Amino acid sequence: MNHLEDMERMASDGSLRLRVNPDRLKRGPIPARDSIFQVPLLGLTILSLVRNSQDPIATVELTRWTLAALARQYPTIRISGKRMAWSVTLRKHCAEAILFLERIGLVEVQESPTRNIKTTKEGVAFLRNLRNRGEESGFLARSLDHSASAALQGGLDLL
């Protein structure tokens, strides 16, 4: 048996005990900061923002609005919100999320100088169905929808 098999056996029979000194652990990144760069989360936030907006949102402004909504969802983002609003990586991932949403038909980007974005009927139906789910995805969709609505009503004052 090798070392990994011994550890597996010990873990399965309950004889494995790990002692961890918390002072020696390296601090990792805050999960909320890392998660905002995930295209599905950005896409769902963008979809909620566009659906809840009374006025058209230009694609150039969408990154800041998305960040404002996520800052309401994840308060730890507020700490570095001003710097993150200028993040090239965040802007790139927001552009990827818009492209993804447009390709699957949930949003339309208008061919105009401001390139406003609007939700399609399919996008509204998708968001409604997702919000009505009783599982974690439904909870996430409802809370992101609430955060998007609050960001639109409160403006960009968090950033």
Features:
three-stranded antiparallel sheet; globular; mainly alpha; 159 residues; 3 strands
Approximately how much helix is present in the residues? Answer: 55-70%
Question: Strand content of the residues, in percent?
Answer: 5-15%
**Taking all residues together, what is the mean pLDDT?**
78
Molecular shape = globular
Describe this structure in words.
By secondary structure, this protein is mostly helical. The protein has one domain (30-154). Helices cover 58% and strands 6% of the residues. It contains 8 helices and 3 strands, in the order H-H-H-E-H-H-H-E-E-H-H. The protein has a 3-stranded antiparallel sheet. A hairpin with a 6-residue loop joins strand 2 (107-109) and strand 3 (116-119). The model is unreliable at 27-31 (pLDDT under 50).
What's the layout of helices and strands?
Layout lengths: L2 H11 L17 H5 L3 H14 L4 E2 L3 H12 L7 H5 L2 H16 L3 E3 L6 E4 L1 H11 L4 H19 L5
Antiparallel strand pairs: 1-3, 2-3
What would a concise description of this structure say?
With 159 residues, the protein is mainly alpha-helical.
